[in-house]
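Thread amino acids onto this structure.
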């Protein structure tokens, strides 16, 4: 063993102590939701504030600004957490205990109000909201001297804020389930914090009812749409007008306004004019899912400067990387979901078949031994930049997708099926799949529920590791089956079968927010910790 590898293992061993003790030593900074600060109205200050929004979305140790918890990686945290909550992703390596995200998949450890799994999602999103609020608050929208660029800058911030509130709503608005009682908080989302909210306001700031939150988010998106009529952001690191339409489609879908969801998904597709990721792009061993292309409507990017070697997306999700936790955990797909991918669908080549090279000539930046020694179903989706699997500041300096046009096609398919009849939705789904994923795909049904579940399955396959299928799953409540004959779940804590949804799909508000905000007293979501323990017997649901 060379010295570099020895020191790496020594360091990881030290970090493992933190993993084992994380449920005991959880500590949180004092205070509540951050309120807005003025960034100044000068053009340079506005531009700096605007540039800070996407920069914050890839910041390692974003909330703590220190190596406290390894899930503290800003927006990519939600991509991984949602994939784990769905039960679509497992740590398949011999060192699966290094998967700091595993509680999202199992909720066997502390998942309550004193846990990092409450604290980090909540404060990550509110900290991102603050960055948007600071830009919005710096623009006097009533001024006669306001320029198109200033309005457009505010529009970008409104779109970002809308997206963050959408995510907060998806995570914290409770959905009924048989495992926890949500009756006291049914229909409640999260508190509003805008550019006008004061610290005093935040001390008595109630959870907004569902309709008020949806109206608020759509109002922000209306502003963004209006302000971008004469403004094009400098790059797709910022939401463009087509992304605003896409965000409206996502919000309307969550709200089950299916006619509107279909309308705005189509507007997003037509305005964007991009095309879905091709098979060649998907399987590229140097640029696969690490370089923005004509399918990516909105993305974020990692800069080599200031990047943390462990707190970055590639280090978590690319098993080819030799410098992150993924080299130990070997993230891969749930076998039952893999089995639903047809052999004629090129997306199946994303994951290692048990027969390895007998099934497919996998492309890798490593070598054949790496593939042959890897666990079946391991992912090859997210590649190291330029195939550099040794140097984190090179291989990890990647683009990360937030919105791809494929999501709009699948939203449109479900929304059309729910608003215009199942046959019309099936036709949309078949058209997308045959055109872009599987030429011989042919789905038929007259049953609305069966149709919704099939669209959800295609979303789970398409957005494995990106998390975008989670909101639809929480809305549809598809049942979660992780213990079945032949499961590749790596341990009993993962082997759980639940009716409808997992109770931890309703995240819990952190204790320091509960203590700092009197309007939340008695109105937290129920703690799902250990309400279900694996393994659930095959063929049954946990009770």
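Threaded sequence (543 positions):
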């Amino acid at each position: 063993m060379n010295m570099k590898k020895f020191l790496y293992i020594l360091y990881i061993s030290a970090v493992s102590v933190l993993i084992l003790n994380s449920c005991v030593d959880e500590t949180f900074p004092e205070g509540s939701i951050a309120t807005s600060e003025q960034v100044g109205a000068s053009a340079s200050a506005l531009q700096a504030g605007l540039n800070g929004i996407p920069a914050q979305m890839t910041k390692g140790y974003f909330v703590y600004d220190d190596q406290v918890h390894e899930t503290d990686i800003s927006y990519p945290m939600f991509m991984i957490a949602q994939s784990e909550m769905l039960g679509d992703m497992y740590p398949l390596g011999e060192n699966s205990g290094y998967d700091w995200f595993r509680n999202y998949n199992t909720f066997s450890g502390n998942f309550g109000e004193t846990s990092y799994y409450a604290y980090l999602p909540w404060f990550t999103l509110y900290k991102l909201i603050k960055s948007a609020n600071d830009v919005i608050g710096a623009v006097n929208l009533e001024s006669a001297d306001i320029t198109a660029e200033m309005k457009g800058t505010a529009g970008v911030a409104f779109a970002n804020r809308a997206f963050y509130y959408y995510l907060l709503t998806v995570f914290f608005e409770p959905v009924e389930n048989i495992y926890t009682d949500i009756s006291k908080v049914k229909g409640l989302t999260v508190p509003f914090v805008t550019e006008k909210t004061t610290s005093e306001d935040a001390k008595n700031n109630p959870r907004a009812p569902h309709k008020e939150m949806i109206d608020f988010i759509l109002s922000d998106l209306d502003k963004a749409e209006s302000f971008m009529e004469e403004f094009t952001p400098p790059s797709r690191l910022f939401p463009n007008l087509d992304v605003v339409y896409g965000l409206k489609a996502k919000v309307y879908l969550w709200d089950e306004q299916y006619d509107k969801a279909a309308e705005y998904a189509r507007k997003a597709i037509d305005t964007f004019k991009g095309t879905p990721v091709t098979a060649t792009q998907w399987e590229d061993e140097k640029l696969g899912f690490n370089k923005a292309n004509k399918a990516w409507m909105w993305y974020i990017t990692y800069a080599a400067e200031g990047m943390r070697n462990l707190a970055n997306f590639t280090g978590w999700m690319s098993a080819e990387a030799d410098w992150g936790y993924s080299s130990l955990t070997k993230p891969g797909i749930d076998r039952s979901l893999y089995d639903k991918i047809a052999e004629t669908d090129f997306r199946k080549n994303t994951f290692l078949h048990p027969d390895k090279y007998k099934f497919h000539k996998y492309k890798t930046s490593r070598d054949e031994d790496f593939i042959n020694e890897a666990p079946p179903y391991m992912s090859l989706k997210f590649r190291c930049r330029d195939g550099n699997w040794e140097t984190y500041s090179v291989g990890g300096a990647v683009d990360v997708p937030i919105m791809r046009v494929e999501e709009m096609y699948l939203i449109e398919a479900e929304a059309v099926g729910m608003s215009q009849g199942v046959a019309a939705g099936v036709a949309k789904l078949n058209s997308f799949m045959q055109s872009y994923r599987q030429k011989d795909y042919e789905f038929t049904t007259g049953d609305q529920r069966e149709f919704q579940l099939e669209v959800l399955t295609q979303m789970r396959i398409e957005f494995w590791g990106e998390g975008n299928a989670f909101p639809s799953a929480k809305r549809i409540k598809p049942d979660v089956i992780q213990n079945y004959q032949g499961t590749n779940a790596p341990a009993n804590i993962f082997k759980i079968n639940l009716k409808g949804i997992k109770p931890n799909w309703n995240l819990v508000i952190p204790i320091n927010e509960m203590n700092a905000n009197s309007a939340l007293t008695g109105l937290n979501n129920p703690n799902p910790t250990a309400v279900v323990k694996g393994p659930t017997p095959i063929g049954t649901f946990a009770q």
